[in-house]
Amino acid sequence: MDDFPAGPASPGPRRPRLTVVIPVHNGGRDLERCLRRLRDSSPGMDYELVVVDDGSTDGSARTAGSFGARVIRHDRPRGPAAARNAGAIAATAPLVFFLDADVAVHPDTLGRALRRFDDDPGLAALFGSYDDRPVAPGLVSQYRNLLHHFVHQRGRFVDEARPARTFWTGCGMIRKDVFHAHGGFDPQVYRRPAIEDIELGYRISRSGGRIVLARDVLAAHLKRWTFFGMIRTDVFRRGVPWMLLILRSKAEEHDLNVDRAGRLSVAATGLAGLLTLGSIARPALGIGAAACLAAVVVLNRDFYAFLARKKGPAFAAACLPLHLVYHACCGASVVIATALWHGRLRRAEARATAVGFRRDEPAPAVPKPTPARTRRPSRWPR
After folding, report:
1. What SS3 state is found at 108?
2. Percent of the chain that is helix, strand, coil (3-state, to 5)
């Protein structure tokens, strides 16, 4: 039994309150900036740093080691869900702070998050947001990071926090026992960067765990966005997987990007596109398209006003086409995910019919496996 407090001259083991887990795949200069800002942010705070090198080929493991991190290496890329699971398994502290390798914390980020857990023993997890000072230059990068900040700063906040159903690993903290009790992230469904954090948040919320979005927990996003990278992310890495999750869980989602104004904006953007195509044959339809675009502007007037305050009216006007593309991607994601979902249902029904029963009939009883065939329990119970 350890009767001595851990410390620089202590014979006892180190017992940090917090483990920072950073997954990385070819992090490059962004990883170095992330680690430097983390080191400089809380010089008096004792935390453990675990970096999971997910099959990098650029020396990311060496960079992490130079900052005193405990490095876990994967011989091949297994995806961020598996990498974060590995980091959480290795964590020794009761709280785990997930940080992306292209995110740089503020000086008070860790301290603010820790204080919320100190003040609220029943809190399961929290997450913050990007700040309103994007680092990467260019219109697309500035727009994307400011959009994230704006979305996460909306809503009714009490003491700078509000309830949330989801989780976010770009800058989020969770109790380690809660993380393990819910099986961590799902590396089988989410083998690539997607919504593995959102899905974990759903599981925690359904079981009664409380998650908050703390808008005073901020960090800078270092990522440089491209136009086509934005489309790929919005449709295939977030939109389609998130819509499939909503359909699978039968959850009514009205938070963050899928609130009422967002849904109406997606519908208006889609209708504007259809009317614009129709106006080739019937020019009068162009009036309807213009009305739909005006509706999008009205629905998102607070966002455009925010952009104008931060970067000027010309910047806000330049972001309007990008915002329409964003809404179009959301609409495309709904269509693709719904088609995939109903396709799976039809295939399941066809398989059920092939074995002799309809979907509206009870399935035949499946015999229980014998003890010899019983599977061993997984380390990550589902």
Report:
1. coil
2. 50, 15, 35
pLDDT bin (cut points 50, 70, 90) of residue 57 is: very high
The structure's pTM equals: 0.85
Three-class HEC string of 332-367: HHHHHHHHHHHHHHHHHHHHHHHCCCCCCCCCCCCC
The 10 Å CB-count burial string (b at 16+, else e) for 256-268 is: bbbeeebbbbbbb
φ, ψ of residue 276 to 5 degrees: the values are -65, -45
Instruction: Residue 105: name the closest of 174, 166, 23, 22 by CA.
Output: 22
> Helix, strand or coil for residue 143?
helix
Smallest CA-to-CA distance from 151 within 135, 138, 159, 162 is with: 162
Each residue's pLDDT tens digit, 199-230: 999 999 999 999 999 999 999 999 999 999 99
Report the DSSP beta bridge partners of residue 21. 50, 98
DSSP string, 181-243: HTT---TTT-SSSSSHHHHHHHHHHHTT-EEEEEEEEEEEE-----HHHHHHIIIIIIIHHHH
Backbone dihedral angles phi then psi of residue 105, each to the nearest 5 degrees: -75, 160
Looking at the predicted structure, is the pLDDT value of residue 81 above 90? yes
Among the residue ranges 119-128, 176-185, 245-254, the one predicted with the least confidence is 245-254
Q: How far apart, in Å, are the Cα atoms of 102 and each of 72, 176, 191?
A: 18, 23, 19
**For the chain, what is the radius of gyration of the CA atoms?**
23
Write down the pLDDT at residue 251: 72
Q: Is the pLDDT of residue 333 over 50?
A: yes
Backbone torsions φ then ψ of 74, nearest 5 degrees = -100, 135
Domains and CATH numbers, the chain: 18-223 (3.90.550.10), 258-354 (no CATH)
Taking alpha carbons only, the member of 26, 79, 74, 22 closest to residue 49 is 22
Which stretch of DSSP H or E encloses residue 278?
helix 260-278
